[in-house]
Write a structure and sequence with these properties.
The chain is of the alpha/beta class. The protein is built from 50 helices and 25 strands. The radius of gyration is 33 Å and the shape is globular.
Length: 1214
C-alpha cells in the first residue's frame, strides 16, 4: 500500500468512526455517566451499556491518527481538529468515573487534545485539576515502565503540567532543576560504568529526560523572545527524547513526548509571536510590543491566541484603519481583542489616546482594572471617569494624562459638550455591550395595556441610554473621521451586526462573527423538576439522546425529606422540618443551588428583586438545615459568626446586621441587585471573583457585562410580575418577560473560560407556565433584533403613539448639543436629514424602506422651540454643556440671579476659608436643583428622610458615617432604600444639577468654570463623595471608596503640604509613593479599607519614565530609600552607608502588598525600599534580566534634628 492510499484509508476510517451511531451513542452514555458521577455517584449505573476501555481505545485512535494526518497535511483540517476535540471531551468524561490509577493519564490526554484542537482554556483547566489532584497531594503517581528514576519521573510530570498550563517561568525553573539532577546522575552512571559495567537502559532514560527538559527550555525561551529557531530545536529535542524513551521501553512517557512534538506545528501558527509577526510584523520592531508579548507569557501564561482572537488578527485587527464589529459569545475573548486593538493604536500613533465606552459603572471598573493591570506594566495610564453630567475640576487632570480612558456614555457626552479638544487625539474608540443602543424607547408590545408611551417616558424622565449613545456615536463618527470604532456585543442577531458594519465601517466587510461552538468552554442546558412528592431530577435538554431515547438525566438530585433545623423543640430535642416544599419555587431553587455548589460557584438568576430576596432567605434556611444535618455541599458553607469578608464589613455598615444579605454572608452566600449600595456590590463582585463566596443570587444586574467565574447558572424566573392600580380603583396583574438576549448574556456567565471546561444553565420548573418559558428560552436562536432607539422613536411617531410636542421636554437636551456644535440648523432641514442618514437609524430605515421624514420634522420642531426659548447663542452653549433640558436650565438661571445678590459675602467667605464651602453656598446650589425633573428620585425608591432634605445632605457632606446617617435621618431598618437614595439622588443626580448651577453661575460672572473659587468647583464632587474637603475629593476620585480613608489621607496630606500650593498631580504622586509601612502604621483604618487603598495605590501609573526606559530612551534615575525609620535594624545598617557606597536592589515578587516592591540592601542587610514610582520601573527591568546597579549619592546622617538617616540613590540600568 503506497503512502497516499494509506492516508486516504486512514482519513476514511476516522470519518466512519466519527459518524458511527454506536460510537456516538456510547459517547453520549459516557457523558451521562460522568454527570451522574459528579452529582450522585452513589446511584446505580446499570442503565449504561458502553465499554469504557473500548471507548478509550477508540479515542486514542481518533487522537493519534488525526495527529498523523495533520502532520502530513492531509485531509480536512477542520474535521481532524473536531476529532481531536471529541477525543478530548471523551477523555475528560472518562476520567470522572475511571479507577484512580487511570485518572491522571486520561486527564493528561484530555489536556493535550484540547491544546491541539485549539481549546487552550480547557487545557489550562484540566491540567490545573491534574496538578491539584495528583501533584499537590499524596496520591501515588501512575506506574511507569522501565524502572526510571522516580525523581526524574516526578520532574517530568511537574514540567508537563507547567507546559500544558503555559506557566513559562515555573516551567523554566523545574526544567533547570531537572537538568541539574540529570547531570549529577550522569556522573554517578559514569562511576558505575567504570566499576561494574555499562547500564545502557539508565543512559537512555537520562538522555530521554535530558532532551525533554532541554526541549522545554527552548519552548520557554521562544515564548519569551519569539526566536522561531527555538521552536525547531524544541521539536528536534522532543523527537530525540521520544526515541530514547522507546529504547527504555517506557511507552507511556514516549507517547506523551511524541504528542507534544506533534502539537508544535499548530502551536507555532497560533503563538502570539508568530501571529503578530505574520499579520502585523512592523509592530514587533517596537520594544513595547516585545515586552508586552513577553509579559503576557510570564504573568498571564498567554503564549498563543484562541481561535476567536486569531480570527480578529487574521482580519487585520492590528493594522487596519477601518472599524470592526465583533459579534462574539460571552467568555470568548472580547476584552482581549479590545486590549490588542488599543495597544496597536497606542504604539502605531504614540501621541494618540484611546477611549473605552462601557454602559455600566461596574463594567467600567472591571475594564479599567484589567487594562491597568496589563497596560500599566508598560507605562500606559488607564483612568476612569465615573458618573453622569457632572465634571469635577480634577477630572481634567485624569483626562489629559490618560492614554486610555474608560467611562460611561453619559460622561463621554459631557466631555464632547465641554471638552471637545480632548477627542482630537483619539485613535480608537471601543464600544462594549453595544446592543444597549436600543435601550430606553419601549415598543408597543413592551408597554402595559392601558398605558401610553408618554406615561412610560414620564416615569423614566429621559429617553434612555439608547438615544444618547446613538447620537453620541454619530457625532463622534462625523467629528473623528480618522478614528476607528471597535464595536463589541455578545448578543445580537446577524442582521444587526451587518447594520453596524454599514454604519461604522468605511469599507464593505463582514462582521467578525464567532459562533457558540468556538466558545472555549461548553454549555449544557438543563431543567429541574419534581418527579414525585419527594424526588426531583435534572434533565439535560441540549445533549444527545441516549439509546433509550431519553435525554441524559440525574435522578433523585434533591429530595424533600426531614432535616434537622439547628434549633431545639420546647422539650429539648433536636427539631426537624420537611424541606423543601415541592410547590415552593424559592425553596426548591435554594436547595438546588446548594446541591449544585458542590461542583463549583453557582449564580441564581431571578427576574425581580422580591424573588431574589426570597431565594436568598431560603438559601440561608437551606444551608442552616444542611449544616445541622451534616449534609453541606462543602465545609466552606459553614456558618461563621464574624466572616473575614469585605462584603460583610460593607453590608453591616450600609445595611445593618439584620439585612438578609448580611445574614447570608455568614454562609458565604451573596446578593447582587439594583438596591445594593455600590460599595457592597463591588465587594461582592470582587469576593465572588476570588471564590470567597460560593453562591450568588442576582437579578439582571449581572447581565450587564460583569465577568464572574460561574460553574452553574440556576434560573429561578424569567418574567416580572406586579400589581398595577388603575384610575378606576381596579388592580390588574401585570407580567413582563425578560428579553432573550439579556437572558443569554446572563447565561454566558456559566462556564468562564480558564475557570471551567463546562458551564450549566439549569431552569427550575414548578408550573406549566415554567415549562412553556423553558421551551421558549432554551434555544439561543431568534434573539430580539437590536433596533436603533431613534428608529423606535420614529415608529412611535408614525404610529401616532406620541406627538412632536410631547417630545420637546425629552429631546431638547440632545438637540441643544447638536445646535451648540452646529451639527444641525433650525432653518435647514437638509442638515438634519444628512445627520440622521449617517446614524444607525439611517441604516435601518434604508434597509426597511421606511421614511425618516417624521423624525426629521420632529427634530426641526424641537430645534425651533429651543432657539425661540433661548435666543442668545452663547447661553445656548452654556445650557447645552449642562446636559439638562431647557426649562431646567432656565430655572437654574433664575436661582443664579438670586444668588448673585449675596455674591460679595460669599466671596469673602471663600477668601477666609478657600478649601471649604459655606453652608449658605451649598444650600443655594442645592435649592436651585432640588426640584428639577432630572433630579427626581426614582419611583421605585421611597423617600423616608426628613422634610428638610438639606439637613441630611449637609450631614452627608460633613462626612458623617453611613450608620449614623441611617439612624438619625432614615428608618434604621431600611438600609436598602437609604443606600438607593444616596446612589440615585446624592451621588448621581444632584452633582449633575449642581454642575449645571456652577456652569451658569460662571457664565453670569463672565468667567470660565476653572476661574471659580476652587472650593466651588469641587462642590459636585463633595456631594458625590460625601466629604466637604477638597483633598478628600481627590482621594475619593482615585477609587478610594471609604470616606473614612479619604478624610484621613486628606488630613495627613494637608499637614505635610499646603493644598493651596500643591495640585492634584502632586497629591497623586504622594499617594503612589506611600510606603507599606506608613499605610500599616500611620492610618487608623480597617483591614478591608487598607486592602482597598493598597489596590488603588498599586494601580496608579504616573509620568512617562516607565515607557522611556522600555524604549531605552533613558538608563539612569534617582530615588530616595524609603522606609528606613520603620525598623530599628534598618536604621542601624543605614547609618553605615556613605556617599559612593554600592547598594543592592532585589525585586520582591512575593510581596503580598506591593507586587512592584524593590528591596534596598547594604552589605547584605535591608535598609528600605526604592521609592514606589521608581520601583515600578526597576522591578520590571530586573525581571527582564537587565543588570541594575545602585549607589548612594547623597546621605543625610543622624543629628539633633533628624532621628534617622536619609539616603538618595542613583540607579543605572545596563
Amino acid at each position: 500500500m503506497d503512502k497516499q492510499t494509506f492516508l486516504e484509508n486512514t482519513f476514511n476510517s476516522l470519518d466512519e468512526l466519527s459518524a458511527d451511531s454506536i460510537f456516538r451513542n456510547n459517547l453520549s452514555q459516557v457523558r451521562a455517566r460522568a454527570i451522574q458521577q459528579e452529582f450522585v455517584p452513589e446511584q446505580s449505573t446499570t442503565q449504561f451499556t458502553f465499554d469504557a476501555k473500548q471507548i478509550w481505545q477508540s479515542c486514542d485512535y481518533l487522537f493519534s491518527e488525526s495527529i498523523l494526518l495533520l502532520n502530513e497535511r492531509f485531509g480536512d483540517r477542520t474535521s481532524l481538529l473536531q476529532n481531536i476535540k471529541t477525543a478530548a471531551q471523551a477523555f475528560e468524561f472518562l476520567a470522572k468515573f475511571a479507577e484512580l490509577k487511570d485518572q491522571e493519564i486520561l486527564l493528561l490526554n484530555a489536556a493535550i487534545c484540547y491544546h491541539i484542537a485549539g481549546y487552550q482554556a480547557n487545557a489550562f483547566c484540566i491540567s490545573k485539576l491534574v496538578e491539584t489532584r495528583f501533584l499537590n497531594s499524596q496520591q501515588t503517581p501512575p506506574s511507569v515502565e522501565g524502572g526510571v528514576d522516580a525523581e526524574l519521573v516526578n520532574f517530568f510530570r511537574q514540567a508537563l503540567i507547567k507546559f500544558l498550563r503555559r506557566e513559562v517561568k515555573q516551567l523554566q525553573e523545574i526544567s533547570n532543576r531537572a537538568l541539574v539532577r540529570i547531570s549529577a546522575s550522569q556522573t554517578a552512571i559514569t562511576q558505575q560504568a567504570e566499576e561494574a559495567g555499562f547500564p545502557l537502559n539508565d543512559v537512555f532514560a537520562l538522555a530521554a529526560h535530558a532532551f525533554f527538559h532541554r526541549s522545554l527550555g527552548d519552548f520557554s525561551q521562544y515564548c519569551l523572545n519569539g526566536n522561531f529557531e527555538l521552536l525547531d530545536t524544541c521539536k528536534e529535542k522532543f523527537q530525540k527524547s521520544q526515541k530514547n524513551f522507546v529504547k527504555t521501553g517506557d511507552a507511556t512517557l514516549g507517547v506523551i513526548v511524541s504528542e507534544l512534538a506533534a502539537s508544535l506545528d499548530l502551536f507555532r501558527e497560533r503563538s502570539t509571536w508568530n501571529s503578530v509577526h505574520e499579520y502585523a510584523g512592523d509592530l514587533l520592531q517596537d520594544p513595547v510590543w516585545r515586552f508586552y508579548l513577553r509579559n503576557l507569557a510570564l504573568e498571564k501564561s498567554i503564549v498563543e491566541f484562541w481561535s476567536s482572537q486569531l480570527k480578529a488578527i487574521q482580519n487585520y485587527l492590528l493594522t487596519s484603519d477601518d472599524s470592526f464589529v465583533v459579534q462574539m459569545p460571552t467568555s470568548a475573548g472580547k476584552t482581549f481583542i479590545a486590549e490588542l486593538a488599543i495597544l496597536a493604536a497606542l504604539t502605531s500613533r504614540p501621541e494618540s489616546r484611546c477611549l473605552y465606552i462601557a454602559p455600566y459603572r461596574a463594567l467600567v471598573n472591571e475594564i479599567q482594572s484589567h487594562l491597568s493591570n496589563v497596560l500599566g506594566k508598560i507605562g500606559y495610564r488607564v483612568s476612569t471617569l465615573i458618573g453622569g453630567f457632572e465634571f469635577d475640576t480634577f477630572q481634567n487632570f485624569l483626562l489629559t494624562q490618560a492614554h486610555v480612558l474608560v467611562t460611561t456614555p453619559e460622561k463621554v457626552e459631557l466631555l464632547l459638550r465641554t471638552k471637545p479638544d480632548y477627542f482630537e487625539g483619539l485613535a480608537t474608540i471601543i464600544v462594549d455591550e453595544g446592543h444597549m443602543i436600543d435601550e430606553g424607547i419601549p415598543s408597543s408590545e413592551e408597554i402595559a395595556e392601558g398605558k401610553t408611551l408618554l406615561e412610560e417616558l414620564h416615569e423614566q424622565e429621559t429617553l434612555g441610554r439608547g438615544v444618547l449613545l446613538e447620537l453620541l456615536m454619530t457625532r463622534l463618527k462625523a467629528k473623528l473621521p480618522q478614528s476607528r470604532f471597535i464595536f463589541l456585543s455578545a448578543v445580537m442577531p446577524e442582521v444587526n451586526a451587518e447594520d453596524f458594519v454599514s454604519w461604522l465601517c468605511n469599507r464593505p466587510q463582514e462582521p467578525l462573527r464567532i459562533g457558540q461552538s468556538e466558545r472555549p468552554s461548553r454549555q449544557v442546558i438543563a431543567k429541574f423538576e419534581w418527579r414525585s412528592a419527594s424526588n426531583g431530577e435534572i434533565q439535560y435538554l441540549n445533549l444527545p439522546r441516549l439509546s433509550s431515547g431519553r435525554q441524559p438525566w440525574v435522578p433523585s438530585f434533591i429530595q424533600r425529606k426531614q432535616y434537622f433545623t439547628g434549633d431545639q423543640t420546647p422539650g429539648g430535642r433536636r427539631q426537624r422540618a420537611s424541606w423543601p416544599a415541592i410547590d415552593n419555587k424559592s425553596q426548591t431553587t435554594a436547595m438546588l443551588a446548594a446541591r449544585l455548589a458542590k461542583t463549583g460557584p453557582v449564580l441564581v438568576f431571578c427576574a425581580q428583586t422580591n424573588d431574589a430576596r426570597n431565594v436568598l432567605n431560603n438559601l440561608v434556611t437551606t444551608l442552616k438545615y444542611l449544616e445541622a444535618s451534616d449534609e453541606l455541599p462543602s465545609a466552606d458553607f459553614q456558618y461563621v459568626a464574624q466572616p473575614n469578608l469585605a462584603s460583610y464589613h460593607e453590608a453591616n455598615e450600609w445595611l445593618g446586621e439584620d439585612h438578609p444579605l448580611t445574614q447570608a454572608l455568614h454562609y458565604r452566600v451573596g446578593l447582587h441587585y439594583g438596591p445594593l449600595p455600590d460599595a457592597v456590590r463591588q465587594a461582592i463582585e470582587e469576593e465572588f471573583r476570588e471564590n470567597r463566596l460560593g453562591i450568588l443570587v442576582s437579578t439582571n444586574t449581572l447581565g450587564q457585562g460583569v465577568n464572574l467565574p460561574v460553574k452553574t447558572v440556576v434560573i429561578h424566573s424569567l418574567e416580572r410580575r406586579w400589581v398595577e392600580s388603575m384610575n378606576d380603583g381596579e388592580s390588574i396583574n401585570r407580567t413582563s418577560k425578560l428579553r432573550k438576549r439579556d437572558f443569554w448574556n446572563i447565561c454566558g456567565r456559566a462556564g468562564r473560560a480558564g475557570k471551567e471546561t463546562e458551564g450549566q444553565v439549569v431552569f427550575v420548573k414548578i408550573t406549566p407556565n415554567d415549562e412553556a418559558l423553558i421551551r421558549e428560552y432554551q434555544d439561543q436562536a431568534n434573539l430580539e433584533e437590536v433596533d436603533s432607539a431613534l428608529f423606535k422613536l420614529l415608529q412611535a411617531l408614525v404610529e401616532h403613539r406620541i406627538s412632536q410636542t410631547d417630545l420637546i421636554g425629552y429631546l431638547d437636551s440632545h438637540i441643544l448639543a447638536l445646535l451648540a456644535e452646529e451639527v444641525v440648523d433650525t432653518q435647514d432641514e437638509s442638515s438634519i436629514s444628512r445627520f440622521l442618514e449617517n446614524s444607525l437609524v439611517g441604516v435601518q430605515t434604508t434597509r426597511r424602506n421606511v421614511d425618516r421624514a417624521p423624525l426629521t420634522s420632529t427634530i426641526r420642531t424641537v430645534s425651533t422651540w429651543i432657539t425661540n426659548q433661548v435666543e442668545d447663542g452663547e447661553l445656548r452653549k452654556v445650557f447645552a454643556a449642562t446636559g439638562l433640558r431647557v426649562t431646567s436650565c432656565q430655572f437654574i438661571e433664575a436661582s443664579v440671579n438670586q444668588f448673585l445678590e449675596q455674591l460679595s459675602s460669599e466671596l469673602q467667605t471663600v477668601v477666609d476659608n478657600p478649601l471649604h464651602n459655606s453652608e449658605t453656598f451649598v444650600q443655594s446650589a442645592f435649592l436651585a436643583c432640588q426640584n428639577l425633573p432630572e433630579m427626581k428620585l426614582l419611583d421605585t425608591i421611597d423617600y423616608s428622610g426628613p422634610e428638610n432634605e438639606f439637613s441630611l445632605v449637609a450631614r452627608w457632606i460633613s462626612g458623617e458615617s453611613i450608620r449614623e446617617l441611617r439612624t438619625n435621618f432614615w428608618n434604621p431598618t431600611e438600609g436598602e432604600s437609604f443606600s438607593r437614595y444616596l446612589a440615585d439622588r446624592l451621588t448621581y443626580k444632584l452633582p449633575w444639577g449642581i454642575n449645571g448651577f456652577l456652569g451658569i453661575l460662571a457664565f453670569k460672572l463672565q468667567r470660565q468654570y476653572g476661574d471659580l473659587p476652587i472650593s466651588w468647583q469641587h462642590l459636585p464632587a463633595m456631594i458625590k463623595f460625601g466629604v466637604n474637603n477638597i483633598i478628600a475629593c481627590w482621594a475619593s476620585s482615585l477609587g478610594i471608596t471609604s470616606r473614612n480613608s479619604a478624610l484621613q489621607l486628606a488630613q495627613i496630606y494637608s499637614s505635610e503640604y499646603s493644598p493651596q500650593t500643591s495640585d492634584y498631580g502632586d497629591f497623586i504622586r504622594w499617594i503612589v509613593n506611600l510606603p507599606n509601612d506608613y499605610i500599616f502604621n500611620e492610618l487608623n483604618i480597617s483591614t478591608f479599607e487598607r486592602s482597598s487603598l493598597l489596590k488603588v495605590r498599586n494601580g496608579i501609573v504616573i509620568g512617562d519614565e516607565s515607557l522611556q526606559f522600555l524604549r531605552e530612551e533613558a538608563q539612569e534615575l534617582e530615588s530616595p530609600v524609603r522606609g528606613i525609620p520603620y525598623m530599628d535594624s534598618r536604621i542601624v545598617v543605614a547609618t553605615r552607608v556613605r556617599e559612593g557606597d554600592s547598594l543592592t536592589l532585589e525585586a520582591e515578587l512575593d510581596n503580598l502588598y506591593d507586587p512592584n516592591a524593590v528591596r534596598v540592601s547594604f552589605e547584605g542587610q535591608q535598609i528600605g525600599y526604592v521609592q514606589r514610582e521608581k520601583a515600578v520601573i526597576i522591578s520590571r527591568e530586573l525581571q527582564l534580566g537587565k543588570q541594575v546597579t545602585a549607589r548612594a549619592i547623597r546621605v543625610r546622617p543622624i543629628d539633633q534634628r533628624n532621628r534617622y538617616p536619609a539616603i538618595e540613590m542613583q540607579i543605572r540600568i545596563e
